[in-house]
What does this fold into?
Amino acid sequence: MPFPLRAALGAAPALIVVAGSAWVAHIADRTSDRPPGSDTYEETVLWPSPDDEARMHRLAVKQEAVSDLMDGLLTLEEVVERFEDVTESSAESVNNMRRTVEGGTDRDRILNQVVLFARVYASNNPRRYQEARRRIEQEARSLASSHGTVH
It folds into this structure.
């Protein structure tokens, strides 16, 4: 078989796929329910509300406290107290915690929340924080023995 014919036969499947893709895209454009002239990419941006800003601030305070806990700069009790202060500053935050975190009391829930934050933090760098995570979980279990259980 001559070389040009072999090359054409080798390229034929790829050309069929490209042509088919173009045809399917054309059909999709014709049957689309998009309004005419909407060929450009549009994005809706909503600026954070004051409530959103407050939520982000509470989250940032909790993340910073857990970071300091993992690095040994704060004790578990200090972090639990910070979480309590931040959580109790918002009725929405208290309700969300009660709805989503296990525990018999709010103090148990906050302790469990700190442990959950620590686990997530440690998962980003397991080698570095594996021992800190174990220490925090063990300390939380001993604290929970007087308050409830750690999950």
The CA atoms of residues 5 and 11 lie 10 Å apart. The radius of gyration is 28 Å. The first helix runs from residue 3 to 31.
